[in-house]
Amino acid sequence: MPCRLIWVTPEAERLMGYCARVSNPENQENPDVAKLLGFCIKHGHWSVFEMADMCIEIQTTRGISAQIIRHRSFHFQEYSARYAKVQRIEEVHPRRQDAKNRQSSHDDLPAETREWFAEAQSQLFSRARQLYDEALQKGIAKESARFLLPMASGTTIYMKGTVRDWIHYIALRSDPATQLEHRQIALAAKKIFIAQFPNVAQALGWSN
């Protein structure tokens, strides 16, 4: 699984319900928040969902991490290839470019093309790793040597955002229009979200 939970606001749904009732202090301690949170979603009262946070760890590549960190409402901490040695390069399953949509692909390449791509990756990654290791052995700084590596280099990201942030991100990036490798991360994050915020997920119509 490319994602795992690091931390979440304790009793997050109860807290969001408590904050939502700020103008009704006599009823703030009411533990029944499912209908209230559903009402807030239905009527677009999104500020309530900014009262709780979740942080997950993501294992991906530099090619996909560049897409993820564009979601600027989140806060990120990423593995530094300037500080630490790159540990892995991940193989990618090739897909055919859509004839009209530049951001769409199809998993129907002929076997010989997939085999060619697999061999190309193997050769490139092996050579890149060899040159990278040689550069480090020669005393070249990691911050310089890393430029010898492909976008398939592995990385780790900690991604922290409010519940509102996660609702938007998951809805957007779990759509089939998203690149497959990124969509798999969003779907993994969705499973974590459903487990941590079951009432919110139910109101959104989300299920595993």
Short précis:
The chain is of the alpha+beta class and 208 residues long. The chain has helices at residues 12-20, 34-42, 62-68, 111-137, 142-145, 163-173, 180-196, 198-204, and strands at residues 3-8, 53-61, 75-78, 96-97, 105-106, 154-162.
Explain what the structure shows.
The protein has 208 residues and is of the alpha+beta class. It has 2 domains: 130 residues, Gyrase A, domain 2 (2-Layer Sandwich), CATH 3.30.1360.170; 53 residues, Single alpha-helices involved in coiled-coils or other helix-helix interfaces, CATH 1.20.5. It is built from 8 helices and 6 strands, in the order βααβαβββααβααα. The strands form 2 sheets. Strands 1-2-6-3 form a 4-stranded antiparallel β-sheet. A two-stranded antiparallel ribbon has the order 4-5. Helix 6 runs antiparallel to helix 7. The longest helix has 27 residues.
Helix-strand blueprint:
Blueprint: E1 3-8, H1 12-20, H2 34-42, E2 53-61, H3 62-68, E3 75-78, E4 96-97, E5 105-106, H4 111-137, H5 142-145, E6 154-162, H6 163-173, H7 180-196, H8 198-204
Helix pairs in contact: 1-2, 2-8, 6-7, 7-8
